[in-house]
Amino acid sequence: MTATAPTTTPPRKIRIATASLAGCFGCHMSFADIDTRLLALSEWVTFDRSPLTDWKTVGECDIALIEGGVCNAENVEVLRAFRRAARILVAVGACAINGGLPAQRNHHRVEALLTHVFETDRHLAPGSRVPNDPELPLLLEHVHPIHEIVRVDYYLPGCPPTAEVIWTFLMDLLAGREPHFPYPMLRYD
Amino acid sequence: MATERQRTAPGLLAALHQARLRWGNPLEEPALAELSAAFALPPGEIAATASFYHFFQTPPARYQIHFIDHVVDHHAGIEALCNRLCAAFAIQPGERTADAHLFVGWTACAGLSDQAPAAIVNGRPLPALTPERIDAIIDAIRAQIPVAEWPAEWFAVANPVYRRGPLLTWLHATPAAAVLEQLSAREPEAILQAVADAGLRGRGGAGFPTATKWRFCRETADPTRYLICNADEGEPGTFKDRLLLTHYPDHLFAGMTLAARAIGAQTAMLYLRYEYQYLLPKLEAARERILAAQSQLPPSERITLEIALGAGAYVCGEESALIESLEGKPGRPRVRPPFPVTSGYLGQPTVVNNVETLVAVAAIVGNGPQWWRSMGTPDSSGPKLFCVSGDVARPGLYEFPYGVALGDLITAARPLGTPYAIQVSGPSGTLLPATPEQLARPLAFEALPCNGTVMVFDERRDPVAIVRHFARFFAHESCGFCTPCRVGTQLIAKTFAKIAAGYATRFDLERLAPALEAMRLASNCGFGLSAGNPVRDLIAYFRPRLDAHLQPHDFLPAFSLDAELAATRRLTGRDDTHAHLAQFEQPEAAR
Ligand SMILES: Cc1cc2nc3c(=O)[nH]c(=O)nc-3n(C[C@H](O)[C@H](O)[C@H](O)COP(=O)(O)O)c2cc1C
Ligand code: SF4
Ligand code: SF4
């Protein structure tokens, strides 16, 4: 629509990684909303680690798209790995930008929340306890936007950002332009 | 077009002081209901006003002790003294003992920089504290001895003067009675002309020509006018007005009377900072004497003199905030124009002058403008009181003519070590390196402006830590009215907390820059305009010292990641490696 695809095929395919931290996968779905343009995109880019691929660890890449805030220890580790791997790291969606709706839990004590859900809720089986297996990542005291943990290069606002914003952004980067979002594309809700 | 004026409640501040004594803090229902009826304001509005002032927040306790959270006091070991007292009663600063006998907290510089470390107990100063004095205080509290019965020497505030010039000599030599004779002698226009001829400029910091301000006020059509003496003296490190209030209150009230007459005001008010309330008996006596001296005048020429007490807010030194405070409202600077000279106290034309300015008025009327003009520089005429504190052997007061070199003033105060950094004019002013070039600069409005305050720091001190103290001060004292200052002062304080925690990187300074710019350009009053000055100067003059605190990393979190897992570690009883997070990653280059 507004953005145009690269006119010539880049010499090397651009590598994109994506991740969802304390996200709802909605930002990824909005990405998928570019619809058949995904086919065009797949001509120009390669995907590294992403919920859409089977790569288990993130490798060197050009762009990392991160949705979701940071709510637990594993989110921190993953976010740092993506930061190390990617040249350009992008905070996608309200959650990554300012913690989003999940950050409403910052009004409560994390112990109280876990206890409420896993121990004192009246629908639980007797003897239910807060899970404590080392397999499980521990929750942080607060939910944080990703820029409080690592440097962020770009922000795509919206909950989720519109497919047009995501498409425009990628086309700009692919064409080597500084990303520009016309006012009608912008939303925080 | 006439705009609807906000409600005013003159006398509310005094009533809140009364209520606090009777009912305690914070004010609750019966007290609020009573005040609400008396001032015809909803109880919530009265509570909101009270909540603006620091000393109306203190929880009720028989002993309310506030240690002075000021850089000079910190260098003198105030933190250890505070901890010593707190430990004896098993509380933390900001807490009250279980029996509600003792509250210990912090407060901003109380005008005792020359007698650091210091504290305030129930509104009375405790200067020059030592561990032994703290132990004696602990005993007195344990023995439940009322503060009124504590030894008088514990409260003795000295006003050491190390250099007298013509002004202090005249003040010292001229008995109050002689000052009083001036009162009947002068016509308004003659007083104004003398002050104009003397070229007097405001001693409160901004240096506005006093006679010009007076003329603006005098030329308004409204015949009901006010003169206010600004004795808020809140700028950290400043204690020059304290000397004048302590030793020369007659001269001050005489100056207020002369100024009031010059502008055609019927009432002159002294707004005294809360921390100086121990001076109230002296000031009341002087006020009575000057009132009595006026009795020879025809009633139409007599000036009513009033004294009002603040309640702990640096921003109330800003003239329109001071007026709001006198009107029984939170001390938030007004949107100007209109300026106080056209619409001030109760909407009437009002002149606000600093204590030293008004004492100078008495001296100029007494000695003539030529005497005044013979001192200082052509642009900054007259003598000036300087208060020097910090790492000097003789912290105290110095009278020099305006234009004295910064270095000469510091030399007079006998630096303890080699001066390294100098804070000129308080945190709102300038932080300078003690280079020969800087020390040669004259203190004058046209060169290096100075309200009189000079704090000396030698090589033991870290300029970054000094700026962190100022950043906390501004964050605490911002009135919170306008966005750049309300938020920006917090951003600066947080950046310095991050630096102190060892987590800051170059990026944190880059990210702060636009906030500093917004504060400088878009703040509603001089507070927000100058609250970024300490960082500005740190970056301009002490960049290597600042950089030494920055981590080489591209970015680090401002909070401890591992500490954020403490709650869930506790809850799950885990302590395996996955239950922890490292704060530092290898810097880019090291990979
Ligand atoms: C944040 C702030 C604090 C101030 N504090 C004081 C103060 O403590 N004492 C003072 O005389 N002036 C203070 N001023 C300056 C006053 O607004 C005003 O300019 C001054 O009292 C005028 O008196 P002068 O002309 O005699 O100097 C302050 C200004 C600002 C912006
Ligand atoms: S921003 Fe909205 S859509 Fe995206 S992850 Fe968060 S909640 Fe989901
Ligand atoms: S600049 Fe600061 S102190 Fe001044 S009005 Fe704004 S918030 Fe209040």
Average of pLDDT of chain B: 95
Uncertain runs of chain B are none
- Please state roughly what percent of the residues of chain B sit in beta strands, choosing from under 5%, 5-15%, 15-25%, 25-35%, 35-45% or over 45%: 5-15%
What is the spatial order of strands in the main beta sheet of chain A? Answer: 2-1-3-5-7
- What is the string of SSEs of chain A from the N terminus onward? EHHEEEHEHHEEH
Give start-end ranges of low-pLDDT stretches of chain A: none
Specify the oligomeric state. Answer: heterodimer
Ligand inventory: flavin mononucleotide, iron/sulfur cluster
- Tell me the radius of gyration of chain A: 18 Å
Using the CA coordinates, give the radius of gyration of chain B.
25 Å
Query: Treating each run of at least 4 consecutive H or I residues as one helix, how many helices of chain B?
Result: 26
Please provide a written account of the structure:
The complex is a heterodimer of chains A (189) and B (591). Chain A is of the alpha/beta class and 189 residues long. Helix content of chain A is 30%, strand content 19%. Chain A is built from six helices and seven strands, in the order βααβββαβααββα. In chain A, the strands form two sheets. A five-stranded parallel β-sheet of chain A has the order 2-1-3-5-7, sandwiched between helices. A two-stranded antiparallel ribbon of chain A has the order 4-6. The mean pLDDT of chain A is 94. Chain B has 591 residues and is α/β, with parallel strands linked by helices. Chain B is 43% helix and 13% strand. Chain B has 26 helices and 15 strands. In chain B, the strands form three sheets. A six-stranded mixed β-sheet of chain B has the order 6-12-11-15-13-14, with helices on both faces. The model of chain B has no long low-confidence stretch (mean pLDDT 95). Classes of the chains: A alpha/beta (189), B alpha/beta (591). The A-B interface holds A 73, 76-77, 80, 84, 109-111, 114-115, 130-132, 134, 137-142, 144, 148-151 and B 507, 554-555, 557-559, 561, 563-574, 576, 578-581, 585, 591. The structure holds flavin mononucleotide and iron/sulfur cluster (2 copies). Flavin mononucleotide is lined by residues 202-206, 208, 230, 232-235, 315, 317-319, 352-354, 357, 525-527 of chain B.
